[in-house]
Amino acid sequence: MSRLRPIQAVVGFGAIAAATAAGCALLAGAVARRVVTPEARPDASTRVLSVIPGPRASRRYGVEGPVVRIRGGWSELPGRYSLILDGGATHAKVGPVLASRRGRAVREILAVDRGRVRRGAAGRVTGWWYADPEELAAEVGEGASIERIVLPLEDGPATAWIVRPADALPGRWAVHVHGMGALPAETLRGVPPLARAGVTSLVISYRNDPGAPQGTHGRYGLGSAEQRDVDAAIAEAMRRGATRVTLFGWSMGGTASTLAATRGAHRDAVDGLVLDSPALDWHGLLQHQARRAGIPRPIAALAVRLLEVGRVRGGDPASPGLAALSQPELGRGLAVPTLIHVSAGDTYVPEDGALEFAARHSDLVVLRRQLVGEHVKLWNVDPVAWEAATERFVRALPDPVPQPDAADRAPRG
Questions:
Q1: Which of 26, 170, 184, 211 is the most buried (most CB within 10 A)?
Q2: Could you tell me whether strands 156-164 and 145-153 are parallel, antiparallel, or unpaired per DSSP bridges?
Q3: Given this model, what pLDDT does residue 403 score?
Q4: Contact between residue 233 and residue 202 where contact means Cβ atoms under 8 Å apart
Q5: DSSP per position, 231-242
């Protein structure tokens, strides 16, 4: 699941800490560290209440397969999702809600890719659909090849996948970049529409992922450090024959992809951006997260300030700070066509930053806005429309033109 780091866990200190200035500073520091620190354990807020076998489920709900009753987490979201249980040992695909009441939902089990859906199991509902690139075989067409490679990053090797359609266009590649707290499998939903357009996909892991080097201080760079891993992926694609690369970023992966396209070492090779639920205004979205968590405004403002001035160290010592991750700054120097998928129903990364980004760069940005769909779960609500818009955009991308150095670019807006 790609979403901003949950900061509710530190709110319990508030009643004690807010009484003193020192306590406020302590709480603000805890909030700031929570934002940039990878989760030790994945979310397990969804619980399986029961599993009803096929014959009984057919009589009661009119479906062919078994159904699962779940509660908590994202149980009642509209659309189809993956159900990941028992620390990842079980991965099942579930259909739309058949019945729901008071946070409990009934969904048909469409497939079990690994493990077993059992009563009492805990886990999470996620937007991921494909758990492994081999599951894409039917979607990307006969003759496609899938290769697992080692991707050299600046601090060590990482794992990655290459998906080549049978009718791959020479030189056309894409790099898929997942969001904070997610895994590369999150991005596999974006591979089929690109494969149909003849684009070879490089699906990457980056710092702090399993199978990748740890980031500086073991923390995230909110996209600025991760940008260099995207640069490394572009370089690897070019080494393997790419002449133009589309960057496909999800959530914080959208931040990293945008930075790579506007100021990265290989920006001249980038022909376009596809962004899903992108984090394009970190100051605003951190304030939003603090409000959702019930953190008092002065403490939230101090936490943001601690990140801005580097008093709480993130995963990028060279980062220019949160100011450089604001909506106007992230778009400075944008020179390639950009498709942005956003939802009015995103409660984690408000759509405001993306809407303002699109308005500021209306000559380059195609905005696809849904009214329904949680963070990085837009595909799950309407996969047909999502994939059609993505494929159409990628097919129409022109050859990239060399971009001027960052120092030569005139500020926009």
A1: 184
A2: antiparallel
A3: 64
A4: yes
A5: HHHHHHHHHTT-
